[in-house]
Amino acid sequence: MDRHIEEIKKEKINQLLKFETLSKIFFVRGGVLDIEADAIVNAANNSLLGGGGVDGAIHRAAGSKLLEECRRLHGCDTGDAKITGAYNIKYAKHIIHTVGPIYSGAKKDEENLSSCYEKSLDLALKNKCKSIAFPGISTGVYGYPLNEATKVSLKAIFSWLKNHKEAEINIYLCCFKDVEMEAYKNSLKSLS
Ligand code: AR6
């Protein structure tokens, strides 16, 4: 897989945030399992007991101990996030499981999707992670249109950075498909 990584220019982020953040944001052409990050984010479902897409890939890579730990968490609400160990995924310290909305077009979808990014970053900060890799939460099976989802996720990340000026974390936005990378770039342009 082509693991192309592009950093969003610092000036661009600072201009959007109106202050100098210590954090960096990258677009990655690849999946969350192709990136070395302290925390990788899983686009899970309310049961936290595994599924298809990136969830299935993460559980396969981490091994059965992950499922054992997930069983003890008793699920997760939509828009919330919970943290576990990363088990056989050696280069990661944690997996942050978040549950995106199943897209319906309601205003609540945007709130829940933003919350997934914010709660995941809260957990990463609390657990002293210096890097975090996100998949496009809800943009696969859960049907969130990419153009909207990338805008919501970028806005949520910028807003979180504004509220956490002390945070120093590398944020990798993983694009499993080329169209995701394009959507992020267009969304970034539209925010400027
Ligand atoms: N490796 C890395 N990234 C992937 C992979 C993979 N193998 N497969 C998909 N992606 P999705 P959702 C990317 O559908 O929409 C599961 O069954 C994909 O390109 O995995 O939040 C859960 O259990 C997209 O960017 O998650 C839930 O039931 C991102 O992962 C449901 O799907 C999310 O796509 C959650 O749906």
UniProtKB/TrEMBL annotation:
Entry-linked Pfam families: Macro
Record domain Macro: where: 12-192
SMART domains on file: A1pp
Domain of life: Bacteria
Membrane-spanning ranges: none
InterPro entries, alphabetized: Macro_dom, Macro_dom-like
Protein name: O-acetyl-ADP-ribose deacetylase (Regulator of RNase III), contains Macro domain
Source lineage: Bacteria, Bacillati, Bacillota, Clostridia, Lachnospirales
